[in-house]
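Progress against Task 2.4 (sequence-to-structure conversion) is shown through the following example record, which the project officer requested during the mid-term review.
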Amino acid sequence: MSEKTPASQRSQRAIPLPVTLQSVERAMADLRRGAIVVVAGNGHALILQAAEGTTRDALARLTAISKGTVSLLLTARRASILGLADSPKGAVRITLSGGITAETVRMMADPAGPQPGQHPPALTIARIDPDSNPGAAETGAIELAKLARLLPAAVVATVPAERLSYLPSWAESESLLIVELESIHQYRDAEARTLQRVGEATVPLSEAENTRVIAFRPPDGGREHIAIVVGSPKSDTPVLVRIHSECFTGDLLGSLRCDCGDQLRGAVAAIDEAGSGVLLYMAQEGRGIGLVNKLRAYELQDQGFDTLDANEQLGFDPDERIYQPAAEILKQLGIRRVRLLTNNPQKVSALADGGIEVVERVPHAFPSNRHSERYLATKQSRGGHLL
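Structure tokens generated for the chain above:
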């Protein structure tokens, strides 16, 4: 592994903040506080607000700004669960007779919230073609909501074509942020490629006393990922590595619904027993949907859905995690060949795609309890996890 770099040298090599990260991070923050933003690209622009931030007053403002029809944008996966689409791929745009209300938006976007006996009649259900100009902007709106760790749904209105020629000045007059569609699409990759080593310290752990904790952060000030380095890994031999997605309920609270806490502490102990290695603690709570959405998924699991179906009920894919940041951190640590502690074949292939050679998959399983039996069985039967 590469030697520790002094903080003064690291700051001199700081990567400039890409506009791609800056604009998307600002748009995510706006959506999370219930504000309206504009997604623009390919000769098309869309005004949008996150579905879970929708209120009566916010809808009134969006309608006044757009001077057009306000629609509800859902993933096709969520729409198919509502019986409004015949395929779970892509997105749909729904215009309701009588107009959109905040109550209707929350009901259709959030299955964990109050559900009326029947859906309001749909006036129009438009399937989104992501390869078309309007469809690309609408797909970008869904992606932006996911990046913000919100429900993947939004209320939207199309910016009239005649306004596009003066879009920046119009948006400024309305105090609206414009985010380019291409920036949204590039965000995840740009965030991974620009991770910086921003802080580190010796932190003796109960399972491994000779441990350093190193924090990595993108230059937009986004979520930190952590490398827990046990001992002194050598870059000339395959390093024992565990990629662990953060789990507040399992890692910190000791939840019995999952095996995450056991996997975390068990991995550190296994790495210490091996002499050295790295555990990457990745900011991807709830398979990448965020803590709040994970709690919503737990509510749905209590209603009978398994862990994958619950994510899909919310409109997400079964697993929204990415592994480019993990590969980038390993490279910065001087590690290119690993023995990977995992039961998930997707992690093996994802690291390989990121330029990291996985020379061995090391099984990493722990006993279930009566609360986690179904969860672990679902990971094997539907998630492709190995024993």
